[in-house]
């Protein structure tokens, strides 16, 4: 996330059948777009589509508007747009007293619509992305009713504004945890948890569904692949899904961020446990979106050929496991080109070498990572599309 204050994911890196849920077994939400628009022609998109998978990437106005070459690459290669910055509160509500400003969000949604790219809008509930107009402890200092009015009032206005324009919402982002959690897997240090209470997640989903019954609603999180608490994080997410479904909350899909770390990935990635986790999610009736995939190239030599090959190996291994699960319907990179990677700004390499986490390099040329992702789609089992 460009230019924003401490993301919680950074510490990791150093079923309701109502409404849109019916779309999972019925008419595709991606088929509501006008036939006059041409579909992306890129190889990644086409190879994924042939297997019933929607491939795409995040994007932001500050990337595509001043850079026509990147905008053209994005239009060609991406079949779905995740809003990277333009619906975060530093854009949407830059100060606590500011009215909602949909200017940037409208522009990125319009860009996606013009490219026939369905939109995954993010995020309705998150404790980050506030920007410099907010005190770091502002959310924690709210009274209970203040917090309810702020969070739910924003969700109500925002979802109503974009109803019919976006396909899916990340409703709850990074709300579970492997350690500091309650009995249902929810992260207890989350400011909305502390001000509103543990029901804030289910209330947010219900409100979003009321405002746009046709949108797919996601719970999204990180850290399921490697790390000392990966197994605990997987368990917490399953607990959270079970709780939400027991309350008839309209949660339709799990978003798996898939911020991968190349440092020892093949050794640390428990492929069997991960495959079981995805299968367990699917057994609960949820679709699975890989939402923010990239590879942090820590632990790799600076020379480009060997580093690019190692990053490609991570993509190949990860996708060979993840795509075995037929419930994985969407795969999104967190950016298409190394020209625009949050890792370069937020986690520069100690040796000063530029980060190379994405399928295209700074010059918008395909890298070994591109080939690895392409081959993973080509080798993936076919599945019914979302």
Automatic annotation (TrEMBL):
* Record field: catalytic activity: Endohydrolysis of (1->4)-beta-D-xylosidic linkages in xylans
GO biological process assignments = xylan catabolic process
Per UniProt, the keywords (alphabetical) are:
Carbohydrate metabolism, Glycosidase, Hydrolase, Polysaccharide degradation, Signal, Xylan degradation
Q: What is its EC number?
A: 3.2.1.8
The record's listing under SUPFAM superfamilies reads: (Trans)glycosidases
- UniProt-listed Pfam families: Glyco_hydro_10
InterPro entries on file? GH (IPR017853), GH10 (IPR044846), GH10_dom (IPR001000), TAT_signal (IPR006311)
The protein's matches in Gene3D superfamilies, at most eight in alphabetical order, are given as: Glycosidases (3.20.20.80)
Listed GO molecular functions?
endo-1,4-beta-xylanase activity
What family is this protein classified in?
Answer: Belongs to the glycosyl hydrolase 10 (cellulase F) family.
Q: Which PANTHER family match?
A: BETA-XYLANASE (PTHR31490:SF88), GLYCOSYL HYDROLASE (PTHR31490)
Q: What is this protein called?
A: endo-1,4-beta-xylanase
The organism encoding this protein is: Nonomuraea phyllanthi
């Amino acid at each position: 996330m460009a230019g924003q204050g401490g993301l919680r994911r950074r510490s990791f890196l150093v079923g309701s059948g109502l409404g849109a849920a019916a779309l999972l077994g019925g008419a595709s939400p991606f088929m509501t777009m006008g036939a006059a628009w041409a579909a992306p022609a890129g190889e990644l998109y086409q190879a994924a589509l042939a297997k019933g998978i929607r491939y795409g990437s995040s994007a932001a106005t500050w990337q595509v508007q001043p850079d026509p070459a990147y905008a053209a690459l994005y239009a060609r290669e991406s079949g779905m747009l995740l809003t990277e910055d333009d619906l975060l509160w530093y854009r949407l509500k830059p100060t606590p007293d500011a009215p909602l400003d949909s200017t940037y969000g409208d522009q990125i949604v319009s860009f996606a619509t013009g490219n026939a790219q369905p939109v995954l809008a993010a995020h309705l509930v998150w404790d980050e992305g506030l920007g410099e107009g907010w005190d770091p402890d502002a959310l924690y200092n709210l009274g209970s009713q203040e917090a309810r009015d702020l969070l739910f009032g924003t969700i109500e206005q925002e979802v109503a504004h974009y109803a019919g324009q976006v396909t899916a919402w990340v409703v709850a982002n990074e709300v579970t945890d492997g350690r500091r959690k309650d009995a249902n897997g929810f992260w207890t240090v989350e400011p909305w948890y502390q001000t509103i209470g543990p029901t804030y997640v289910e209330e947010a989903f219900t409100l979003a569904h009321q405002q746009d019954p046709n949108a797919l609603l996601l719970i999204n999180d990180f850290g399921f692949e490697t790390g000392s608490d990966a197994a605990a994080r997987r368990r917490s997410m399953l607990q959270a899904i079970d709780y939400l479904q027991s309350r008839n909350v309209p949660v339709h899909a799990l978003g798996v961020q898939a911020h991968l770390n190349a440092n020892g990935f093949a050794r640390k990635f428990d492929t069997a446990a991960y495959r079981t986790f995805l299968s367990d999610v699917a057994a609960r009736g949820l679709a699975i979106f890989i939402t923010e995939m990239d590879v942090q190239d820590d632990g790799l030599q600076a020379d480009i050929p060997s580093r690019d090959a190692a990053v490609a190996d991570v993509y190949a291994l990860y996708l060979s496991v993840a795509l075995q699960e037929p419930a994985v319907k969407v795969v999104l990179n967190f950016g298409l080109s190394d020209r625009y990677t949050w890792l370069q700004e937020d986690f520069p390499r100690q040796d000063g070498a530029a980060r190379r986490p994405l399928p295209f390099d700074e010059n918008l040329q395909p890298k070994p990572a591109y080939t690895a992702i392409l081959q993973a789609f080509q080798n993936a089992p076919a599945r019914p599309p979302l």
